[in-house]
């Protein structure tokens, strides 16, 4: 992550300033080209290394500002109930049973919030995406640099991985490989108390939780402005049919 050179908060006004290390000498991936397979794998390795370093770490208890994932549960549920009908109106043409699907997803996200906050927990970035990444090193052997640590949370490692993979365009093609890579990197770093079956369940809950976030945001921003249109595009690329598939996989254990 970039070095923080200066920061100051005026508690009376809430105004603040932060000056970070200049990252302009490093590669910033473009929206047009996206992330390469090498870059995606490097991000997953780095996430595993970061999560392993904080895995069940007693120091987490000293970070009073680090909110658990479950702290978002009530707000996310209420926002999703408002945003879901908008999403269905825009993307649900010809798809049956969407009311029931929405209710099932609402219940599952509530369960996910609690389940993904149960020990063992770690320090999660929760907003790893193309816009928040720079890369050092070569194209074949990149080293990720993570910025925008605004949405950090405490929770299970798979939730952080899912946050990165949910809307990744290569997810369907690379998902199985990346899931194995993350788990093997955790074990290589000494994490031995995260059974694979449990990890996969957490990952699927994390996917559904990640989907629910922008879906709920639709109810706040509306679908007809640039931000709302971007959310619709993001959610459409994931697809309601894919959403149903993850719910089914989760129900099957």
Question: What tags apply to this protein structure?
Answer:
mainly alpha; globular; single chain; two-stranded antiparallel sheet; Aminoglycoside 3'-phosphotransferase, Chain: A, domain 2; 6 strands; 253 residues
Spans of 5+ residues with little confidence (pLDDT < 50)?
A: none
General shape? globular
**Any idea what the radius of gyration is?**
19 Å
Average of per-residue pLDDT values:
93
Identify the CATH architecture. Answer: Alpha-Beta Complex
Q: What is the strand tally?
A: 6
Major sheet size, sense and barrel closure: 2 strands, antiparallel
Q: How are the strands ordered across the major sheet?
A: 1-2
| CATH homologous group name | Aminoglycoside phosphotransferase (APH), C-terminal lobe
CATH class: Alpha Beta
Percentage of helical residues? Answer: 40-55%
Structural class: mainly alpha
SSE pattern: EEHHHEEEEHHHHH
Distance between the termini: 36 Å
Strand content: 5-15%
Total number of distinct structural domains: 1
Number of helices: 8
CATH topology: Aminoglycoside 3'-phosphotransferase, Chain: A, domain 2
Question: Would you write up a description of this structure?
Answer:
The protein is mostly helical and 253 residues long. Helices cover 52% and strands 11% of the residues. It has one domain: Aminoglycoside phosphotransferase (APH), C-terminal lobe (Aminoglycoside 3'-phosphotransferase, Chain: A, domain 2), CATH 3.90.1200.10. The protein has a two-stranded antiparallel ribbon. It has a two-stranded antiparallel sheet with strand order 3-6. A two-stranded antiparallel ribbon has the order 4-5. Strand 4 (133-137) and strand 5 (142-146) form a beta hairpin. The longest helix is centred in the last third of the chain and has 26 residues, at 196-221. 32% of the residues are buried.
